[in-house]
UniProtKB/TrEMBL annotation:
The lineage of its organism: Eukaryota, Fungi, Dikarya, Ascomycota, Pezizomycotina. This is Alpha/Beta hydrolase protein. Keywords: Hydrolase. It comes from the Eukaryota. It comes from Aspergillus flavus (strain ATCC 200026 / FGSC A1120 / IAM 13836 / NRRL 3357 / JCM 12722 / SRRC 167). Pfam families: Abhydrolase_6. Residues 344-461 form the AB hydrolase-1 domain. One of its GO terms (molecular function) is triacylglycerol lipase activity. GO terms for biological process: lipid catabolic process.
Length: 630
């Protein structure tokens, strides 16, 4: 469906037809049965007439965009006025062109003309929903509750009609590509439409992604479709950008770092948190708070808090505090662990910790979930460490003496790097009460990890999504770095699809590509601004630690290489001989398995930190011994 205005960028959108078509098909019968419009025989309907109506609704779209841009907070009167103007178009249509008439099997229209008119109505309804969505996002819950019930019903009906048109599109077998329908419309319009459908509870599974490029065959497309569908099934909110929890309030500038902007206790039914797959007998909250950017300016960040039923000894003492720092989830707002039903790493991290009786504070990292100008800054350990400190301050202000002042940080991969950076930061700028860090497979120096992955791949697949994520993130921070100057045409054509998913989708899209298929130019890895990024944003370098640290590393780690982790460990120990560090090496275990196996070591280590068990002021390496066969 083409609905372009001059100067409006458009994107090709894919609407998943499988899985919802049976439910949507019932809507056609519902609307047709409730129609009170007598169908005319519109033999006067011509292609020119349909184009004319499409132009009218397209100009209406432009007017809606203009109003939204020029009026940040749409008043009720303005909303009503624009709605009335939009409704004038529908009222002026003859009976045979009304949507209800198109629902009748006796409408007398050839299929092509009926399709064209349905497209026109879809653009019109999208305008109505876009306006309504803008109004919803700009007003408080109490204001919305005062809205006339009839108005809410009208917009629910609009969503119902949109869903019906989607069913017609499918049932009439419009052009499909591997069971996917191609619709073209302005990307901002589509986002608002989807958000509106979700807000009003219409059950439509929508997958927004650009059309598959020629370099992705049927097998490639099927694997991407499956990966994206699996990730979407795990999202709590199908569209974070329209979820009011993650949005910035109008007075966001009034908050300082460490302040709570918004707190939401997730409802529980018989010890099962609604919408999440958290362990039984746990309590989940999510919150928006203020962190800082690299210049010390406050920026919003989101996080979750997972509380156990009781503490480690079943007493009423304060819960021991652990901050969990997650590994790579993706690079968009949608990929926030607080928006994942399993909180992303499940039993590999937060679930295992809460079941030990710890209060688990888990920042998403600024830009995942929260809306910040520069977007999520992937692998920016120095800034992730700020997110940790300020999330801890925020929870302390909320729970006060229900949690201990003492705390430990635990992380894996990107989170392992973050835990290491937290230990370094606490030496310079203490949050207070810090007992130590557990750092699993720490991705400390991307500019060393990435080239090693390229060398090890040889002529085969690199299995690399990380370097693309890193390059994209840096490009948003340094104007001199432009993604299109370095990635291959294959990657450039697939980025819009990858942007609709998270780590799983990105790994599927890029994982089987060789180095020449990934990049046409790899010189970015040595660019001065990229090196500056690793020093300032990532925080690379040998720094003194504030407290003891336990490092866990598998020798078969395919993402964070054991030789690099051991080098960083050795550098810290040799530069600062009084460091209290222990490195556990797990033979033949990969990136995730080593950290899971390491629970046997790191869970007792955390407990000992809270119980003041002393450690020798030295660095120790231990290669884990595997018991022989029984």
């Amino acid at each position: 469906m083409v609905a372009r205005q001059n100067g409006t960028a458009s994107s090709t959108v894919w609407l998943l037809s499988n899985g919802n078509c049976q439910a949507l098909g019932h809507l056609q019968q519902d609307i047709a049965e409730t129609s009170t419009v007598v169908s005319e025989t519109p033999n006067y309907v011509t292609a020119s007439m349909i184009r004319s109506q499409m132009w009218k609704v397209s100009f209406m779209s432009a007017e809606v965009y203009k109003r939204i841009r020029s009026i940040p907070s749409l008043s009720w009167n303005e909303f009503e006025r624009v709605s009335s103007e939009l409704d004038t178009w529908r009222q002026e249509l003859s009976g045979g062109l009304q949507l209800q008439a198109l629902a009748s099997h006796n409408n007398g229209l050839p299929p092509e003309q009926r399709r064209g008119l349905l497209q026109v109505h879809m653009v019109y309804l999208e305008n109505r929903m876009l306006l309504f969505q803008h109004f919803l996002q700009r007003h408080t819950e109490s204001k919305l509750l005062q809205m006339n019930a009839n108005t809410r019903q009208i917009y629910a009906a609009f969503a119902h009609q949109l869903a019906w048109i989607i069913s017609i599109i499918y049932l009439d077998k419009w052009p499909f590509v591997r069971n996917w329908l191609v619709i073209e419309m302005p990307s901002k319009s589509w986002s608002a439409l989807v958000a509106s459908l979700i807000t009003l509870g219409v059950s439509v599974t929508v997958t927004a992604a650009n059309s598959f490029p020629d370099n992705c065959n049927a097998s490639c497309q099927a694997s991407i479709e499956q990966a994206l569908a699996q990730e979407q099934a795990g999202w709590v909110s199908a569209n974070v950008s329209s979820d009011s929890f993650y949005g910035n309030p109008a007075n966001i500038s009034d908050y300082a770092a460490g302040d709570i902007v918004r707190w939401e206790d997730v409802p529980s039914q018989q010890y099962t948190t609604v919408g999440y797959d958290t362990p039984p007998a746990t309590t989940l909250s999510r919150f928006l708070y203020m962190s800082e950017d690299i210049d010390g300016n406050p920026i919003p960040a989101s996080a979750f808090l997972l509380l156990p039923f009781t503490n480690q000894d079943g007493s009423g003492k304060p819960l021991r505090t652990v901050v969990w720092t997650h590994g790579t989830a993706g690079i968009t707002r949608q990929c926030a662990p607080s928006n994942n039903k399993g909180l992303y790493y499940e039993w590999e991290g937060p679930f295992a910790l809460v079941q030990q009786g710890y209060a688990v504070i888990a920042p998403d990292y600024a830009g995942q979930g929260s809306d910040i100008p520069m977007g999520f800054m992937y692998e920016s350990g120095a800034l992730h460490a700020l997110d940790v400190s300020f999330a801890l301050q925020a929870v302390r202000s909320r729970l006060q003496d229900r949690i201990t002042h003492e705390w430990v940080v635990v992380g894996h991969s990107e989170g392992g790097m973050t835990a290491w950076r937290v230990n370094e930061r606490e030496k310079r700028n203490a949050t207070g009460g810090f007992l130590g860090a557990v750092s699993g497979a720490p991705a400390l120096r991307p500019l060393s990890l990435i080239p090693q992955s390229w060398r090890l791949a040889g002529d085969g697949p690199v299995h690399d999504v990380v370097s693309i994520f890193v390059l994209q993130s840096i490009s948003r921070l340094f104007p001199s770095i432009k993604v299109e100057n370095y990635v291959s045409d294959i990657v450039a054509s697939r980025i819009p699809i990858a942007q609709q998913g998270c780590l799983g989708t990105g790994s599927t899209i890029y994982g089987n590509l060789t180095l020449p298929q990934l990049y046409k130019n790899i010189s970015w890895i040595n660019h001065p601004d990229v090196i500056e990024w690793q020093q300032s944003y990532n925080g690379a370098g040998t720094h003194e630690l504030a407290a003891p640290m336990l490092v866990l590393q598998g020798t078969a780690d395919e993402l964070v290489y054991a030789n690099l982790t051991e080098w960083d460990y050795d550098q810290t120990c040799s530069t600062f001989p009084s460091s209290v560090m222990q490195l556990y090496i797990y033979p033949d275990l990969n990136h995730d398995f080593a950290f899971i196996a390491g629970q046997a070591q790191y869970l007792p280590w955390i407990r000992d930190r809270f119980e003041n068990v002393s450690l020798s002021a030295a660095c120790n390496k231990t290669t884990v011994t595997v018991p022989g066969p029984v």
